[in-house]
Structures are given as C-alpha cells and as structure tokens.
C-alpha cells in the first residue's frame, strides 16, 4: 500500500497485529507495506492525505480521524482515496478508485429527543466520488424529525433509493443506518431484522470486517431483548472475526459489549465483566483512543460499584470524567458525573450531599445538551437522594417530572421505572393504595413492551408487599429501599 503525507499532516501507522507502530510526517513521504491481515492508520487532519490499498492484499483497511470530537472511520478494500482537511471547518473525502465506507459519529433528534448515533455514507469513483462534511462537537447528522415514523420514512426512502441503484455496498450501509436509528429508538425486533439483512449482504460481499460489525450489533440488540445466550454467541463470533482480521478497534468494542452482557447477567458474572472491560481498556489505550478509554473506565467503575469496591469505582469514574472534560465530550462528562453520584450515594449518608451535587451537575448538562432522556434519568437520581435525605415532597416532584418526560418521549421502560420510584416513596410515606396503583401501572407497562427479567420481578415483589400490608394493616412490614 502507499500513503502520501503532505506538509502539516501526521499519520500514525499501527500494525493491527501489534508488531509495529510508526509516525510519519513531512511534505511527501511514501511508505510501502504488505500485510495479510490488515493495517490500521490514525490520521491527524490539517492538509490532504491520500492512501492506496492494493486489491486483494488486505482484509480491511481503516483510517480513523477525530475532528472537533467527531469520529470518522473510513473503511476501504482495494481502493484509492483522498482525505482533504485543508479547508477550515471542512473535511472532504474523494474516492479515486473503488468505494469508501465512511462512518461518522454525531447526534439525531427524534421527537425532541437527542440521541448519539453513528451513520454511514458510501462514496465510489463511479457514482458518488466525493463527500464534504462540516463536523462540530454538537453535530446533528440529519434534519430533526417530529417523531419516529418521520425518521423511519426518511431512512426507508434512502434504503429504497440505494436498492434501486443496485450497489450492494450502498444498500448495506443504508440498512445499517436504518438499524442504528431503530436501535436508538428502542425498536429492538425491527432493528434486529435490519441488522440480520445487513449481515447476509456482508457475507455475500465477502466483507468479513463488516460481517463482524453486524454480528456485534446483533449482539447488542439481543442483549437489549434479554436474549443473553444468543447475544453472547453473536458477540463471540464477532470477537473471533475481529481477532482473525487483526482489527483491534473492533475487538475492543465487542469486548466492551461482552462486558455489558456479562454484567447484566448478575453478580456471578461481575468478575468476568471486569476482565472483559479491562481487556477493552488495554486495547483502546494501545490505540490511543481517548474516548474509548473513558468509556471503558466508566464501565469498569460501574462493575466495581456493583462489587462494593467503592473507592476503586470512584477513582475509575473520576479518571473517565477528567478524560471526557479534556476531550470536550459533554455527553460523556454527564455520564461520568452520573457514575460518580451513584458511587457517592452508595458510600453512605455522609456522602449524600456529594452525590446530590454530582447528579445535579449531570442534570444541568443534560438540559444544556437538550438530552431529554438523560434529563429524565438524572431527575430520577436526584429524587432518590432527596428521598434518602427525608425530603419526600421534593423527591416525588422529581420523580413526577421524570415520569412526565419519559411519557412525552414515548419511553415506556423509563416511565415504568419512574412509576416504581413514585410507588416506593408513596409506600414509605404509608400511601399504600396510591403506591399499589403506581406499581400496577409500572407492571402493565413492562408487560406491554414485552419486558421480562429483574425489573418485572422487582415490580411484582413491590405489588405483593403492598397488598400484604393492605390486607394486614396492623402488621409491620419491611420498608422499601431505593438506590440509583
């Protein structure tokens, strides 16, 4: 392959097998390498970089750029392309031969709800040779949609257009985009179908890196559907493919997914989850992926908290917070503050003021970002601390605000959780009929969305406890407990 680096540009060449790492800079410097497994390049934009990949030599070739906290990934096979960052505020991809699959990170707004998302474009020398972007740290990748049906119509129209054109690379990218939006909206069965269609196309195309990515996405959906055995099978297949290809970035991502899956399977799997997260952390640190490092630290902190390793958990969350602030990643900052608040809460009554401060900082950030789902979750966290401090009136107000937001967003899972919080507070203040009504509403919502698992179990236990209290009012009953 050949990489040309102009003046002002720096390219870091990293062997995906971990055997070599080389930084290249200068006006024009040519590097020729041959690999059977692939090479991975990190590019710092500021000029024009070009790359040529000899057909059939590599299983995959990827260039990763971060511009104003926006991550681009250009994946190619047997392709010649140019990345031009010489114009202030703009980034242009030009394809000279073959096709380039460009994945870009940013946000999408549906019904007033802001969600992080990754969407893809495909450019080709034959049909669409060039694409220019103007990325920013708060980059919306599409127009705002009034509701999910409008978003669905938009992405289905894109898919229909690509199918009419017949280019399978573009079809699979459109399928992946549709699936990513469906996943972001919580429409898991439809997202699963779209990802499975993408998987079948990747296999027809012989695109093994794309196949691995589709398997990893399928695993995420299956985990969301509580299909843990199927999710682990998908993740393990993806992990094996990424390792075979030498794709360490993909390996780190799927290890993180495996850790999430293991954590959700209960405390017996916490050590395995921690091991998976630490393996992911080591890989992203080798790759210099600071955002990935911060996300891995948040996940590690979550498991350490679950294991009651609270000082270690606080340290992990604080390290993540520092990195997110360094990157200017305010979404990540809010996530880390939420983790810190949860750990502080768990450390006992003396730390409740610190917990409340962290949750309120996260709440302010979510509101500033327009992340209404995050805002609703933060309101619930604030309510839990308020209740623990004896301010049940303020707690109920926070929970009701959270419930109203979840209801407005159509997030029935979140609304059910808020109803459980409301019920616990009502129960603690001896408002037993109102508490029973709140719990029953929560259970109905869980049943309507097909939820089964720990949330349903907890809600059924809440209902049984209050019914027992109502049937024997003179008998003492255990008081409910809440935690973030």
Provide a concise account of the structure shown:
The protein is an alpha+beta fold. 58% of the residues lie in helices and 17% in strands. It is globular, with a radius of gyration of 24 Å.
What does the model show?
This protein is α+β, with helices and mostly antiparallel strands and 484 residues long. It folds into 3 domains: 1-142, no CATH class; 145-246, Tetratricopeptide repeat domain (Serine Threonine Protein Phosphatase 5, Tetratricopeptide repeat, Alpha Horseshoe); 371-484, Serine Threonine Protein Phosphatase 5, Tetratricopeptide repeat, CATH 1.25.40. The protein is built from 16 helices and 13 strands. It has helices spanning 148-165, 168-184, 188-205, 208-224, 228-245, 248-264, 270-287, 290-306, 310-327, 330-346, 352-369, 372-388, 392-409, 412-428, 432-448, 454-471, and strands spanning 2-4, 10-15, 21-25, 30-32, 39-44, 48-52, 61-67, 70-76, 80-84, 91-97, 99-110, 113-124, 130-133. Strands 3-2-5-7-8-11-12 form a 7-stranded mixed sheet. A 6-stranded antiparallel sheet has the order 4-1-6-9-10-13, with no helix packed on it. A hairpin with a 2-residue loop joins β7 and β8 (70-76). α3 (188-205) runs antiparallel to α4, α11 packs antiparallel against α12 and α12 runs parallel beside α14 (412-428). The longest helix is centred in the N-terminal third of the chain and has 18 residues, at 148-165.
């Amino acid at each position: 392959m050949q990489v040309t680096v102009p003046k002002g540009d720096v390219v870091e060449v990293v062997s995906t097998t971990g055997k070599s790492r080389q930084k290249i800079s200068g006006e024009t410097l040519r590097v020729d390498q041959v690999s059977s497994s692939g090479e991975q390049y990190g590019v710092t934009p500021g000029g024009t970089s070009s790359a040529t990949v000899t057909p059939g030599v590599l299983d995959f070739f990827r260039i990763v750029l971060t511009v104003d906290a926006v991550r681009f990934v250009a994946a190619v096979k047997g392709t010649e392309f140019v990345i031009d960052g010489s114009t202030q505020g703009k980034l242009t991809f030009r394809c000279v031969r073959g096709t380039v699959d460009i994945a870009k990170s940013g946000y999408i707004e549906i019904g007033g709800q802001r969600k992080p998302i990754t969407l893809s474009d495909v450019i080709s020398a034959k049909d669409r040779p060039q694409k220019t972007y103007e990325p920013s740290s708060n980059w919306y990748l599409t127009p705002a949609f009034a509701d999910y049906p409008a978003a669905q119509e938009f992405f289905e129209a894109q898919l229909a257009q690509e199918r009419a054109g017949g280019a399978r690379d573009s079809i699979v990218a459109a399928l992946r985009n549709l699936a990513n939006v469906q996943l972001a909206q919580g429409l898991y069965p439809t997202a699963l179908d779209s990802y499975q269609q993408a998987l079948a196309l990747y296999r027809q195309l012989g695109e093994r890196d794309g196949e691995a990515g589709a398997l990893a996405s399928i695993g995420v959906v299956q985990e969301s559907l509580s299909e843990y055995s199927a999710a682990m099978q998908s993740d393990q297949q993806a992990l094996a493919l990424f390792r075979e290809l030498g794709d360490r970035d993909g390996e780190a991502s799927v290890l993180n997914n495996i850790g999430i899956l293991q954590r959700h399977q209960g405390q017996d799997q916490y050590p395995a989850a921690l091991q998976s997260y630490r393996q992911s952390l080591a890989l992203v640190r080798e790759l210099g992926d600071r955002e990935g490092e911060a996300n891995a630290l948040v996940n590690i902190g979550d498991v350490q908290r679950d294991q009651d390793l609270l000082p270690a958990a606080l340290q992990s969350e604080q390290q993540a917070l520092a990195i997110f602030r360094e990157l200017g990643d305010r979404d990540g900052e809010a996530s880390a503050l939420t983790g810190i608040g949860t750990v502080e809460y768990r450390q006992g009554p003396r730390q409740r003021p610190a917990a409340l401060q962290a949750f309120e900082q996260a709440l302010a950030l979510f509101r500033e970002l327009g992340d209404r789902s995050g805002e609703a979750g933060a309101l619930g966290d604030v309510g839990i601390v308020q209740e623990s401090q004896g301010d049940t009136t303020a707690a109920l107000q926070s929970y009701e605000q959270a419930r109203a937001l979840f209801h407005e967003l159509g997030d029935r899972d979140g609304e059910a959780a808020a109803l459980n919080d409301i019920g616990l507070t009502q129960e603690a203040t001896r408002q037993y009929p109102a508490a029973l009504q709140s719990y029953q509403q929560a259970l109905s919502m869980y049943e309507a969305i097909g939820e089964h698992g720990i949330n349903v179990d907890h809600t059924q236990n809440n209902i049984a406890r209050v019914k027992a209290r109502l049937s024997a009012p003179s008998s003492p009953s255990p008081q409910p407990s809440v935690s973030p």
